[in-house]
Amino acid sequence: MKRLAISIIFMAALLFAPLCANAQYDFIRPVKDVIPGGYNFWVYTPTEYYYTLNETPVIIFLHGQSLCGRDLNRVRRYGPLDAIVKGRQVDALVVVPQNPGGSWNPKKINDVLEWTKKNYACDSTRVYVIGMSLGGYGTLDFTGTYPDKVAAALAMCGGCSLKDRTPLGKVPLWIIHGTADRAVPISMSKSVVNDLERTGNDSRLRYTWLQGGNHGVPARFFYMRKTYEWLFSHSLLDEGRPVNRETTLDMSDVPTAYRDMDFKSADPETVYETTIK
Known about the structure:
By secondary structure, this protein is α/β, with parallel strands linked by helices. The chain has one domain: Rossmann fold (3-Layer(aba) Sandwich). The protein has helices at about 1-25, 50, 80-85, 105-120, 135-145, 185-200, 225-230, 270-275, and strands spanning about 25-30, 40-45, 60, 95-100, 125-130, 150-155, 175-180, 205-210. The chain has an 8-stranded mixed sheet with strand order 1-2-4-3-5-6-7-8, covered by helices on one side. Helix 6 links the parallel strand 7 and strand 8 (about 205-210). Helix 4 packs across helix 5 (about 135-145). The chain is globular, with a radius of gyration of 20 Å.
């Protein structure tokens, strides 16, 4: 009887070993040609995903113009995927589409989101959108087009292409831009802020102007724990959907952005060069 019990335990261990292995493994999966005419993208599955499943939030990251193209590996050069590889723990499904060129298309971004929701267990009340430069435009354009799908948005050194920006007022939104940005002038972000303030749609708006910050400086925030903590503090189910104003991201964070990260085999100087370009 004892030998039978040991055999059963051994067989069970073999049966469930793949599941246990997956539960302990951070998996970054390329997804190509699954949406006709749509974007290719990466999906990162967090370490604890097989324990959280339907409670897992979703982060969509939209890159800048320098990463446009059809080589999906390009979009891992900076942003959340690079931060994860370098050691930052992000407890969310991280979805990173690649824009082949031109402006981000809100409908195509939504197609990626809907594919993700159909193919992965996740918490659809906790979908977050973040991006910088061209991706900052994409973040605001998508959020303003689908405000009822976005729990919170963080747009850095970008702007907004929408004629009607009032729907942005429905979403907890943080806009960040460097005052010395020569690639995308800060006036692009200030235009959005001014429109929301002028129309009385700024109750959920935050904005931070990084004094002396150039175009690359905001990218440091992708590597900081509190950036993700700020996102995760919001849900579509929050009464009144208030914006979290307690978290700070400013120039004082820039020198210490990577301080608490486990770089594994990465050289911090390499990360620095990758991030600010």
